[in-house]
């Protein structure tokens, strides 16, 4: 290296790899007087097999002077390339020079403790904090002798000037949990000031020792530090929100910022309360030890987007010191941290919730799509409002995860600032004032939730001194303000039919590209929704974007209730435009018309009270120009013979949550047909349906020439960088294959999507030596192992492949499945006339893991015929396997169709059984041995599958149908039972759901979990070993006169899997049960009932007096309430009976009203707390009651059961009175409803109830349930019970 006045000696760059497209870094010692360098010479010794080297550039950074220089080369150093030189002198490109404040040299002495195992080979990282700032990460150079037990190691490092230090953070950068280090202390000396500082630790940095932390903060001691700062324990409570799929499996972290620096990013690994952390509506507590931060200002929290379900809805974070030196600090988030939700951010900065004067701003920036549009420069932004303006904000200071270096990239961040008022303009730029730092800015969006506005800035320009206008900074005014809450005018046209009028409540929900509104009540007025009337409603609701559909719900409790809806017109008032837009009518209003022409009402045709409608595409001008997301669909036609088609092909995309697109025609423009071997690509713009789980594909061809062999489809979502693969390998034809022209394809690995790395294999396929052993089919392989299964890989039939005595060699990549167990082989015929039988000898898989590591060979010997007609596939065990559980067995599959109206199905049904040893593959449920017409209402159909490799203990089952029936494609499945005939084991898979695109949640694919796993403890209940389940029955007899009994009574409990025997409640002299107002508890054991559905209750006289007459008190028994508890799962089933049971009856049937799950595993957050119920009786004349009053309170976590409101010795519910009651029960969550009931048996039973208030005495949260009406037989609608909803 050459300086202005001197040069260095020759420096050997050892340990460099110098691989293609790589960067090698070296730390060298040289006089700082050389900087800035004038030139450098670089050469190599021209030895080795690959001695030639193409050098792009050399970058030299001298922290001591703060100068970073770049020396371009862009040439070969080789004696056989270019000018054949192996030595070059490089000159600096001055335009690329960077300068920064010079670093300060320090000596660092690290003292490892003299404890057993105290040393480490892991990378140690230090961060130094001082009153002048903090350092970058200081990585201590690793070698085999450093950081060993009892050693002191010296390092020399350059650190940016931080002033007088006050703390040092030490951490291990290791993914291996076995790495541990016991640090005694660290000493540092500033070589500029000669001042010496000490940092004492004396603790483990380890994931297996001490408190399992690999980050320690050490307070500084030394000159200028009168007293070291204390180490403080911060308690961090993380509240996950209450939304579907709110929990996360990703690795989360938090960084806490205070007046004295920050904690650094700390992993949130060990929750003190929950084994499974960050579950929905759960609170997780973590401990963070750090040097005192003083006043905490903000936090930065996020995750790494890994795991099966990385999306996370974070409610809030609460932080306080263990010594309670100040109260809890709350940081409200109430947003998603997810790449596919909200604004796509997985890291958020949160400020204290007490800063109520602050306004939140969400900024999103789009870099242009042009080549070289990105920049690596630092971006800054300043916002000017009518009230105030922000400071100039650097991206790196707001969120250093933001990137704008790639074309088409989106960047975003959130910050809080005082209210700026209406935004008038912004100033944005970057610091790349030298050549090569240009940036093409496409647009900026600023969302201000407080103002319900989104400001859009259309930029479309370069920020570069070389292109466009001068300067790298520019001002922009808003081009559009989008209102997030906008007015809608809804016009409802009631039809001109007899009986079309309704007095029922009508509710509407609007769905658009940006989301959906809540259900909106179209407030009733007098004479609303009369026959042939037109009613208008003006509402404010979220801007859902382009409206895609509406849902109308008709509350049919009132009489008359039937209603005939002709149509609905919606006018959507849009944003205020700041530039001229090409619109055909009012630029601020869009109109949508929904043609309905349907009856609503339980007494009308179809008995529908909820209907959905799409806008009429022929109505007016749909002014909104926004579209759905783009899908790229690649269609792969088979490449052998006449596999193409000129028929009209259509597809429908179906999402994992049941959403689906319209049936989309695919028009091949160039050839007007799908040619053999071609891949046709189509760009579709459709609504976002989430992950694509299935594709429905069909064509309308009727002739032999329309036959089409489809290899498969690939669906891409470019904006989300997602790709989904669908394998078909079937004919769509009325003359070939199974003669079907419609297929339903599911995404590969629907159950266990592979996240494993790919491993290369060489595949040797040996066809047998017997006559006619060859075939004309493609061959499919799928590998199963100890950790999962691979994707299916298809080897195409080529000339000479799969012929008699042939050994065909292929290469492929399969997912890592652990140790191989078996190989699934399938043949895929190309036509029904070809050779569709194949004699397979064996298949060898040769696994290559890494270079220079010995390959592994797995052999799968078969020596038998494979026929597509006989069986769809064959599983072959790896040679040498001694697993007895992998012998062949017979599975008997029994499906129970529910006994519901329209539960039957005529579609083609398929299953896949999953066990410890893999899956069964797709099995078609074709021929039931029980019924000719299978899947009929209430029927159990039986299907038998022989010679299947034993899957071991079964755990899941996938079942679906192809939706091919026109009349009966909705199927309600109660359960599936699978019998392993050889092992004598039975497995139950409860379902109790619809498989239908039109009912329930719209899904026709169900993943069922086996209910047999009963040999474990849930919620502290007993261990079950004999196959019997303990159940508890709680019976509440009413306190009405003569409601008790001295007779014997009985109950039968029915579930979806089984039914109990008749269980008697014995009444004896010593055991007086079922008395008036008395609760009784009984227990019994039986085979698993599954989900309890109903009970049958009977009242029986004692046999010792069969001819006696029964007095009135014994002739009947009034049951108030019965609760059945499944003790194995902690699930309660509630039956509000409220009925007289007559003696010697045949039994009264009651259906389950609610299911209350108390399992700790299912609801870890529920605990017993006190609730106060306050009842306000109105002060009008004659409102009191002497009747018995009971209530049931319903919440998001369960209900209380029936509660009797009684106060011994007191008269309750008097005119103008306020009565209070306290009950202890399991936490209910957010209160949703209150059911109140009173019995009109008293003289004064007419009662005017004003309201009821419920107070959670743990949180002091009060919920009011207004009533303001009478409950009695003398007035109005004679209600004796009501459901009240909260305000």
Automatic annotation (TrEMBL):
Listed PROSITE patterns: PLAT
InterPro entries (UniProt xref): Inner_ear_hair_cell_LOXHD, PLAT/LH2_dom, PLAT/LH2_dom_sf
PANTHER family xref list: LIPOXYGENASE HOMOLOGY DOMAIN-CONTAINING PROTEIN 1, PROTEIN CBG12474
Domain named PLAT: residues: 1-91, 104-219, 232-351, 359-477, 486-614, 629-746, 759-880, 889-1009, 1029-1155, 1169-1285
Source taxon at top rank: Eukaryota
One Pfam match: PLAT
Family matches, as CDD domains: PLAT_repeat
Alphabetized Gene3D superfamilies for the sequence: Catalase core domain (2.40.180.10), PLAT/LH2 domain (2.60.60.20)
Protein name as it appears in the record: PLAT domain-containing protein
């Amino acid at each position: 290296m050459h300086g202005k006045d001197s040069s260095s000696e020759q420096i050997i760059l050892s340990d460099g790899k110098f691989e293609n497209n790589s960067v090698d870094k070296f730390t060298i010692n040289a006089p700082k007087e050389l900087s800035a360098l004038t030139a450098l010479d670089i050469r190599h010794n021209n030895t080795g097999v690959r001695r030639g080297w193409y050098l792009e550039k050399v970058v030299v950074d001298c922290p001591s002077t703060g100068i970073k220089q770049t020396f371009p080369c862009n040439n070969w150093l080789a004696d056989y390339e270019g000018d054949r030189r192996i030595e070059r002198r490089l000159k600096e490109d001055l335009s690329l020079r960077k300068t920064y404040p010079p670093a300060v040299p320090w000596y660092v002495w690290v003292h490892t403790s003299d404890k057993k195992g105290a040393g480490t080979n892991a990378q140690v990282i230090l961060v130094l904090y001082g009153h002048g700032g903090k350092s970058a990460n200081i990585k201590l150079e690793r070698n085999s002798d450093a950081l060993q037990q009892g050693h002191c190691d010296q390092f020399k490092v350059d650190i940016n000037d931080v002033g007088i230090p006050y703390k040092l953070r030490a951490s291990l950068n290791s993914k291996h949990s076995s790495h541990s280090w016991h640090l005694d202390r660290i000493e540092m000396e500033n070589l500029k000031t000669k001042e010496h500082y000490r940092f004492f630790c004396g603790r483990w940095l380890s994931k297996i020792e001490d408190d399992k932390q690999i980050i320690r903060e050490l307070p500084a001691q030394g000159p200028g530090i009168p007293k070291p700062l204390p180490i403080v324990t911060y308690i961090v409570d993380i509240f996950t929100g209450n939304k579907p799929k709110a929990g996360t499996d990703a690795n989360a972290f938090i960084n806490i910022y205070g007046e004295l620096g920050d904690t650094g990013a700390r992993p949130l690994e060990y929750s003190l309360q929950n084994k499974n952390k960050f579950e929905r509506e759960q609170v997780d507590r973590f401990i963070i030890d750090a040097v005192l931060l003083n006043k905490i200002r903000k936090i930065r929290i996020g995750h790494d987007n890994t795991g099966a379900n990385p999306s996370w809805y974070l409610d809030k974070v609460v932080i306080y010191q263990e010594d309670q030196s100040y109260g809890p600090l709350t940081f409200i988030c109430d947003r998603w941290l997810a790449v596919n939700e909200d604004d796509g951010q997985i890291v958020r900065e949160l400020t204290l919730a007490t800063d109520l004067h602050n306004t939140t701003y969400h900024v999103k920036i789009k870099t242009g799509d042009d080549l070289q549009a990105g920049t690596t420069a630092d971006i800054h932004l300043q916002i000017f409002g009518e009230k105030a303006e922000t400071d100039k904000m650097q991206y790196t200071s707001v969120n250093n995860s933001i990137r704008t270096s790639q074309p088409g990239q989106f960047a975003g961040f959130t910050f809080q600032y005082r209210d700026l008022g209406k935004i008038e303009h912004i100033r944005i730029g970057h610091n790349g004032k030298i050549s090569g730092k240009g940036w093409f800015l496409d647009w900026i969006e600023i969302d201000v939730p407080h103002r319900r506005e989104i400001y859009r800035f259309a930029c479309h320009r370069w920020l570069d001194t070389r292109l466009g206008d001068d300067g790298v900074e520019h001002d922009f005014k808003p081009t559009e303000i989008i209102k997030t809450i906008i007015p809608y005018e809804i016009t409802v046209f009631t039809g001109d039919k007899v009986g079309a009028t309704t007095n029922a409540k009508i509710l509407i929900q609007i769905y658009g590209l940006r989301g959906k509104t809540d259900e909106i009540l179209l407030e009733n007025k007098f004479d609303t929704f009369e026959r042939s009337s037109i009613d208008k409603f003006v509402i404010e609701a979220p801007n859902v974007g382009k409206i895609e559909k509406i849902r109308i719900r008709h509350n049919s409790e009132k009489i008359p209730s039937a209603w005939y809806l002709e149509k609905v017109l919606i006018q959507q008032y849009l944003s205020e435009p700041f530039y001229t837009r090409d619109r055909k009518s009012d630029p601020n209003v869009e109109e949508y018309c929904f043609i309905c022409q349907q009856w609503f009402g339980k007494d009308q045709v179809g008995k529908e009270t909820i209907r959905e409608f799409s806008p009429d595409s022929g109505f007016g001008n749909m002014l909104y120009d926004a579209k759905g997301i783009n899908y790229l669909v690649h269609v792969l036609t088979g490449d052998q013979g006449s596999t193409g088609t000129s028929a009209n092909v259509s597809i429908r995309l179906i999402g994992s949550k049941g959403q689906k697109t319209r049936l989309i025609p695919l028009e091949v423009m160039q050839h007007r047909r799908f040619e053999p071997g071609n891949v046709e690509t189509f760009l579709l713009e459709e609504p976002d349906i989430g992950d694509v789980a299935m594709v429905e594909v069909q064509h309308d061809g009727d002739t032999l020439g329309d036959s089409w062999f489809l290899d498969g489809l690939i669906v891409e979502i470019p904006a989300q960088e997602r790709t989904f693969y669908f394998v078909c390998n079937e004919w769509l034809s009325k003359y070939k294959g199974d003669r079907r022209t419609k297929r339903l394809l599911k995404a590969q690995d629907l159950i266990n999507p592979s996240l494993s790395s790919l491993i290369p294999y060489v595949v040797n396929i040996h066809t047998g030596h017997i006559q006619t052993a060859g075939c004309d089919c493609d061959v499919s392989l799928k590998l199963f192992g100890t950790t999962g299964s691979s994707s299916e890989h298809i080897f195409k039939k080529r000339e000479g492949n799969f012929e008699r005595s042939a050994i065909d060699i292929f290469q492929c990549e399969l997912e890592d499945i652990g140790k191989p167990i078996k190989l699934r082989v399938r043949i895929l015929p190309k036509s029904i006339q070809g050779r569709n039988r194949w004699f397979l000898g064996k298949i060898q898989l040769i696994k290559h893991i890494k270079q220079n590591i010995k390959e592994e060979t797995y052999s799968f010997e078969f020596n038998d015929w494979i026929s597509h007609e006989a069986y769809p596939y064959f599983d072959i065990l790896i040679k040498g396997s001694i697993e007895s559980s992998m012998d062949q067995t017979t599975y008997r599959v029994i499906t129970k169709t529910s006994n519901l109206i329209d539960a039957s199905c005529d579609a083609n049904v398929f299953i896949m059984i999953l066990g410890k040893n893999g899956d069964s593959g797709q099995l078609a449920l074709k021929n039931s041995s029980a019924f000719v017409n299978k899947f009929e209402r209430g029927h159990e159909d039986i299907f038998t599958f022989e010679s299947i490799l034993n899957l071991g203990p079964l755990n899941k089952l996938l079942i679906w149908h192809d939706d091919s029936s026109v009349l009966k494609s909705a199927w309600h499945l109660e359960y599936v039972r699978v019998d392993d005939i050889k092992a004598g084991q039975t497995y139950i898979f409860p379902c109790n759901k619809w498989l239908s695109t039109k009912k329930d949640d719209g899904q026709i694919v169900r993943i069922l979990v086996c209910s047999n796993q009963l040999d474990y403890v849930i919620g502290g209940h007993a261990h079950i070993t004999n196959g019997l389940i303990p159940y508890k029955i709680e019976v509440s007899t009413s306190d009405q006169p003569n409601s008790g009994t001295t007779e014997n009574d009985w109950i039968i409990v029915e579930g979806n899997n089984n039914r109990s025997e008749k269980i008697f409640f014995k009444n004896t002299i010593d055991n007086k049960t079922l008395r008036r107002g008395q609760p009784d508890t009984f227990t019994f054991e039986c085979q698993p009932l599954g989900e309890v559905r109903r009970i049958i209750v009977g009242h029986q006289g004692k046999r010792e007096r069969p001819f006696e007459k029964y007095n009135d008190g014994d002739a009947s028994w009034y049951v108030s309430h019965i609760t059945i508890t499944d003790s194995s799962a902690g699930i309660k089933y509630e039956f509000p009976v409220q009925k007289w049971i007559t003696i010697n009856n045949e039994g009264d049937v009651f259906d389950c009203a609610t299911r209350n799950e108390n399992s700790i595993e299912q609801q870890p957050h529920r605990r017993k707390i006190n609730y106060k119920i306050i009842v306000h009786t109105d002060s009008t004349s004659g409102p009191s009651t002497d009747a018995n009053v009971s209530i049931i309170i319903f919440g998001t976590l369960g209900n209380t059961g029936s509660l009797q409101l009684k106060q011994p010795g007191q008269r309750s519910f008097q005119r103008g009175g306020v009565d209070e009651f306290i009950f202890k029960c399991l936490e209910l969550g957010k209160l949703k409803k209150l059911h109140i009931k009173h019995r009109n048996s008293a003289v004064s039973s007419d009662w005017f109830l004003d309201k009821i208030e419920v107070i959670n005495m743990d949180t002091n949260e009060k919920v009011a349930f207004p009533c303001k009406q009478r409950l009695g037989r003398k007035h109005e609608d004679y209600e004796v019970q009501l459901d009240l909803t909260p305000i």
